[in-house]
Write a structure and sequence with these properties.
alpha/beta; Rossmann fold; six-stranded parallel beta sheet; three-stranded parallel beta sheet; 19% strand; globular; disordered N terminus; Flavoprotein
Length: 243
């Protein structure tokens, strides 16, 4: 009887989350870590062809979710979902969904979720023209293109979709699922990079603001990496004096 009661309680606590994943790459390590470490979510996963090529397979496997490939099955999952999450939304997907274009399983599924008025949470890092990574990569130099993306984002907000960045995903995800927790300031983290040259690629998986970056003395920093460090408030500490 106790086992049956425990199983019933767990089943009620467990939340059904449907993920629509596209082929972006900005801050995906941080995003998938948050998803993987959420103990009360059961995932269904719909991926675009680009996502299958770009997102590391181990990230998807770590979620232990059910991959959905058929439209009829996807519609059923949307109906049952407590929350729809788009952990990676590209500029392409943002534009299509905001214009009502549904030309693949992911855009069709997001459109159906909007029409069903489901609770939808989107991580905006991959398309956001204000994201430091996109700025460092030189993708935000055309202010009119940037404004177009922001207008699409605002249109989806008016439809009830919520947006967050990777750094706030854990808090927003738990809030959306009704999971109470005590927030605390994240501890200072250190990342030691043993390398002659620090590049932007080395930095993309790091957090923001609270990170102390440890470098070997004499390590050179590429221009894009330096822009990213300055934009994200990362502190540099050399393990020994630079030569």
């Amino acid at each position: 009887m106790i086992k049956a009661l425990a199983a019933e309680i767990i089943s009620r606590l467990n939340k059904r989350v449907l993920l629509f994943i596209t082929g972006g790459a900005v801050n995906i390590k941080e995003v998938f870590t948050v998803l993987r470490e959420n103990p009360l979510a059961s995932y269904g996963i719909v991926m675009s062809e680009a996502a299958a090529r770009v997102i590391p397979g181990e990230y998807i496997e770590s979620l232990k979710g059910k991959i959905i490939r058929e439209k009829s099955e996807m519609t059923g999952e949307i109906n049952r979902a407590d929350l729809v999450v788009i952990p990676v939304m590209t500029r392409n997907t943002l534009s299509k969904v905001s214009l009502g274009i549904a030309d693949n399983l992911v855009t069709l599924g997001i459109s159906e979720a909007v029409m069903m008025n489901k609770k939808i949470l989107v991580v905006k890092d991959s398309f956001d023209p204000e994201n430091p990574v996109n700025i460092s990569l030189g993708y935000t130099k055309n202010k009119y293109y940037n404004q177009m993306l922001l207008n699409y984002c605002e249109r989806l907000k008016n439809m009830g979709i919520e947006f967050t960045d990777a750094g706030q995903l854990n808090e927003r995800l738990r809030h959306a699922l009704g999971i109470k927790f005590e927030s605390s300031k994240p501890p200072k983290a250190e990342k030691k990079i043993i390398s002659n040259i620090l590049t932007l690629e080395d930095l993309l998986g790091m957090g923001k603001g609270h990170v102390e970056l440890c470098l070997e003395g004499g390590t050179k920093i590429s221009p894009l990496a330096r822009d990213y460090i300055e934009s994200n408030g990362i502190t540099i500490k050399y393990l020994r004096e630079k030569e």
